[in-house]
Amino acid sequence: MAAERNVELGYVEETEKFLLKSRFFPSKVGGVPAWLSLNPLPSAEELTCRVCSKPTVFLLQVYAPDSSKTFAFHRTVFIFICRNDNCCKANCADNLIVLRSQLPKVNDFFRSQPPAEVPIENEIDASKYAKLCRVCGGVGPKTCGKCGCVSYCSKEHQAVDWKAYHKRECSTNKTGNYFFQYIYNLAGFFSTFWEDSPWLWNWEFYRHFHEIGKIN
User: Fold this and answer.
1) Spatial distance between the Cα atoms of 130 and 110, rounded to a whole number of angstroms
2) E runs forming strands in the chain
3) What is the DSSP-derived secondary structure letter of residue 48?
4) Chain mean position to CA 11
5) What is the pLDDT along the chain (216 residues), one digit of tens a residue?
6) CA-to-CA dists, residue 175 to 60, 140, 143, 146, angstroms
């Protein structure tokens, strides 16, 4: 006879944004991960879909400490998933990346005592140790070529963010090469007359010159 297992069910509910930061060891769904071990983080290669070889996105994390083990006083399981529906197949988990992170009570990142549930100015998170991808929250070694202010793990996630959000907020990097910025603005101007010339093409056009000119 199989041994009985205890199963805990949880429900997703809204909460204060600051309570989802790493120092509160949250369980959360969506957004970007609140990393437990802040340094080092998983590489972009470790967060790549094993089916299509494209970068995955953060799905959820569950805080599951094990008080019987000193090295797992804090323990969190992170799950990343591929955005490509074709990678999701029955009885196959190759489109999922599951990571376990654990820390002892006394560690290099967090105090031993529970934190006060109030916002703080200098938040404790992984961005103190590395640039983070705005889309998945992983290591982001690449930056926006136009403003240089936003980081990404890959060209795929840069394109996703550009279409969804960053296109509307991106500002000119004043320290960049003005000639290439002029090319970018000129392409954007002519796109207003050509309905079949999407802005994304203009961005790729600019980025092509950006890479040749090595602005960064």
Assistant:
1) 17
2) 28-29, 57-63, 74-81, 96-103, 142-143, 151-152
3) B
4) 23
5) 567 788 878 888 999 999 999 999 999 999 999 999 999 999 999 999 999 999 999 999 999 999 899 999 999 999 999 999 999 999 999 999 999 999 999 999 999 999 999 999 999 999 999 999 999 999 999 999 888 889 999 999 999 999 988 988 886 444 444 444 554 455 554 444 444 444 444 444 444 444 444 333
6) 38, 21, 14, 10
Number of H helices, E strands in the chain: 4, 6
Helix ranges (DSSP H) in 48-198: 155-161, 167-169, 178-191
User: Who contacts 199 (Cβ-Cβ below 8 Å, separation ≥6)?
Assistant: 167, 188, 191
The CA-based angle 122-67-81, given to 5 degrees, is 65
In angstroms, how far is CA 125 from the centroid of its own chain?
Answer: 13
Q: Residue ranges of the domains in the chain?
A: 17-127, 151-213
Collapsed DSSP state (helix, strand, coil) of residue 24: helix
- Give me the amino acid identity at 72: A
Q: Decide if 145 contacts 118 (C-beta within 8 A).
A: no
Strands 74-81 and 96-103: antiparallel
Integer Cα distance of 110 and 137 in angstroms: 19
